[in-house]
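User: Once you have settled down, look closely at the record that follows, taking as long as you need, and be ready to discuss the fold:
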Amino acid sequence: MNNPSPQPIKFIADIRWTRTSWLFYVVAMTDTANPPVPAAPAHPLAGMAIGFVGIVIFGATLPATRVALEGFSPAFITFSRAAIAASVAALTLLVLKKRFPRQHALSLFIAGILLVYGFPGFSSVAMQTVPASHGGVVLGVLPLMTATFAALLGGERPGLAFWAWSIAGATLVLVFSLSGADIEPGIGDFWLACAALSASCGYVISGKLARTRPGWEVISWALIVTAPLSLAGTAFTWTTGVFQPDTHALIALGYLSLGSMFAGFIFWNWGMAIGGIARVGQVQLLQSFVTLGLSALLLGETVTPVMLGFAIAVGFVVWCGRKAKVG
């Protein structure tokens, strides 16, 4: 006797479970009727190397944002970088004759809101009041936060060790933010926390979509479905968000558009595809160090021993947390 599929029943139960989290569960349960079987990693070392290229691109995001703020407002940076990246994505999809995946439209839109507007917007506001090096350390727990949301939204059962390392990482970040190692704690740390939450949730949603199509297509379609908001926001903030930018600010905006918003995702998802998500995902632990180094090189910011020590401690905690068992 054939048993009926339990997916519709579980979907309804998850929506009714709580009103405040219905959106996350709708996304988490989307397209789970026929989950793909992950292939074995073909080239783990090559995947880690390619993934590291993506991490280097992402690591320069905060320093580039501080440079761009010399000529543009945070709102204009958020919308214009998305509009520029959406134009490139549209051209790429058109040339390659890719069809829009209508069944994933809702998930793509939510991922776009979080990754296209959430993380860039919150981090741009944060960079007005905190150094890029400080932000790099605070965002060092982003890999662990991503794993935490994957566990919560994916229906997995994290063990005690997983939660212990998660709490340890959050505690380290809190202590660093309140220690006054480089600045007095302030509203910038709050915006950095919002940026981390947006990015981690967006990574989980886009990661689920990347199981069905190449990662570059995921970010491209996410940029396309949110393009009307990007274009409208760019036009609305044009008169008040452009402050006679110099060459450096223009280059920084171009980098944020074509690098952080587009190219970085191509290398990152490509590396995970050929090297394995778990193995290549560990490369993200190096992003804090990349941001610290680029902040010192490009902005002349001082990387103190205390700051470096916190970065190493956060990296160690995230590394151990990723190795903890999740049922």
About this structure: The mean pLDDT is 77.
